Amino acid sequence: MLLVAVLAGLLATAAAARWLQRQGGARDLLVVATQDIAAGTVIAADQVRAAEWPASSRPEGGFSDAAAVQGRVLTVALQRGEAITAARLAPTGTKGGLSALVPAGKRAMTVRVNDVVGVAGFALPGTFVDVIVNTQADEGDQDVRRSRAISRTVLDRILVLAVAQEVDRDTTKPRVVNAVTLELTPRQAELLDLARSVGTLSLVLRNPAELHTSGSRAGADPGVTKDELLGRVPAPAAAPSSLRRSAAVTPAPAPAAAAPPAPAATVQLAASPRAPARHCVDIIRGLDKVTECF
């Protein structure tokens, strides 16, 4: 009876293995990561291996030979067991580091930040920010110059490539650093360089799901001045002397037979007062959010 039971168990195991093999279908080799690999890393031989993978779910651009990916640079971070595909690799011959993460036509530029400018450390790699500059705007002619404080959004929806010397996008823990590297176009890099030379910069964290084409806002955003912040009504502009006074228009000499001229009209200018502007600011202190209105 024991012998019969052992034989029955072996037959059942063999039948189950065949059934599972038929359910899984054909299998193929696919190169996967043997450990967590950070973005911008040059792939070494001990970081990848060829593993069996269902042929029906093989990702496009996968590799069957581990030697084909050795020495290539990753553009995204990989976790242990993830497949390595051509879309996740930089072009052949690319050196490792941050330069491998910069797309074609883009530039990487670093700006100095602190715990306030860097949104309390929440401006992490992979997040999107707006860049605001606070400066003094000149007004008036060349003889009489007046300056007024103004804050304006100069860059919109800019990707953060790295904070300090780290490019890991998988972390969500805030980090207070002294430098943030942004992904910019050549035109945006020029705007940012000028903005940080004429005023102070601030980063504004935004929702990555908010769809908006990345670009400069220097021409579209008028900015906010100190008068608008405090709700001051600007003094009405002085009217020209020809319109400010009530002038009787002297008619031109008319022929003797002409009718007497109509009485002159009085020109009056009335300035309508503008309602004070009201602005609200969201202040985040750690995990608390407070809204202050001015």
- Number of E-state strands: 11
Classify the beta-strand content into a percent band.
25-35%
Distance between the termini: 90 Å
Estimated radius of gyration:
34 Å
- Uncertain segments: 235-258, 264-273
Q: How much helical structure, as a percent, in the residues?
A: 10-25%
Give the SSE order as H and E letters.
Answer: HEEEEEEHEEEHHEE
Estimated structural class: alpha+beta
| Average pLDDT reading | 76
The oligomeric state of the chains shown is single chain
Q: Please tell me what the overall shape is.
A: elongated
Please summarize the sheet with the most strands. Answer: 7 strands, antiparallel
Number of helices: 4
Which labels suit this protein?
single chain; 294 residues; alpha+beta; Type Iii Antifreeze Protein Isoform Hplc 12; 7-stranded antiparallel β-sheet; two-stranded antiparallel sheet; 4 helices; 27% strand; elongated
Q: What are the SSEs and their pairings?
A:
Blueprint: H1 2-24, E1 27-33, E2 48-54, E3 107-112, E4 128-139, E5 146-163, E6 179-184, H2 186-198, E7 200-206, E8 215-216, E9 224-225, H3 226-230, H4 241-244, E10 280-285, E11 288-293
Antiparallel strand pairs: 1-2, 3-6, 4-5, 4-7, 5-6, 5-8, 5-9, 10-11
Notes on the structure:
The chain has 294 residues and is α+β, with helices and mostly antiparallel strands. Among the domains are: 27-100, Alpha-Beta Complex (Type Iii Antifreeze Protein Isoform Hplc 12), CATH 3.90.1210; 102-231, no CATH class. It has four helices and eleven strands. Strands 3, 4, 5, 6, 7, 8 and 9 form a seven-stranded antiparallel beta sheet that branches. The chain has a two-stranded antiparallel ribbon with strand order 1-2. The protein has a two-stranded antiparallel sheet with strand order 10-11. Strand 4 and strand 5 (146-163) form a beta hairpin. The longest helix has 23 residues, at 2-24. It starts with a helix and ends with a strand.
